From TrEMBL:
The gene is Dnajc24. InterPro entries: DnaJ_domain, DPH_MB_dom, DPH_MB_sf, J_dom_sf. This is DnaJ homolog subfamily C member 24-like. Signal peptide: none annotated. Belongs to the DPH4 family. Pfam families: DnaJ, Zn_ribbon_CSL. It comes from Phallusia mammillata. Residues 7-74 form the J domain. GO terms for molecular function: ATPase activator activity; ferrous iron binding. Keywords: Iron, Metal-binding, Zinc. Residues 85-146 form the DPH-type MB domain. It comes from the Eukaryota. The keyword Metal-binding applies.
């Protein structure tokens, strides 16, 4: 799991905040298509490679604790990259919701995705007093004024 080459969410065509049920459904759909027993001999090597990558993604995203750890690692990667900060938004403008018994704040991005800020399991990037949160759908980030 420490190797984050290739994003598991992108590999499985999921957004970063997919539920376990969504992950399981997508896994079952993909695995039927790439299972080595289902394809012709000429595509076997490529199929086996795809199959193993999907299996690895499922082992992480299908396990709630490993998914949280993976999400944190992805968020840490964002700290190592240049930010594409599109706006500064006060936390009060974020919509407060409850997901899995945790308070989550969300704000709609102009791309149609959302910025999610959760105190409990998704650690935002903190630089001094600045909190930077990534969009779930595009490469934009916002600075959250707490």
């Amino acid at each position: 799991m420490s190797n984050l080459e290739g994003n598991f969410y992108e590999l499985m065509n999921l957004d970063n905040f997919s539920t376990l049920a969504e992950v399981k459904t997508k896994y079952q759909q993909i695995i039927r298509k790439v299972h080595p027993d289902k394809l012709q001999q000429s595509n076997l090597a490529k199929s086996e490679q795809s199959f193993l990558k999907i299996q690895e993604a499922w082992k992480v995203l299908g396990n709630p604790q490993k998914k949280i750890e993976y999400d944190l690692q992805l968020q840490q990667l964002i700290t190592q990259q240049d930010y594409n900060i599109s706006d500064c938004i006060p936390l009060e403008e974020f919509e407060e919701t409850f997901i899995n018994e945790e308070t989550t704040f969300s704000y709609d991005c102009r791309c149609g995705g959302s910025y999610f800020y959760c105190h409990d399991n998704i650690q935002p990037v903190v630089q001094g007093e600045t909190v930077i949160v990534a969009c779930s759908n595009c490469s934009l980030h916002v600075e959250v004024i707490t």
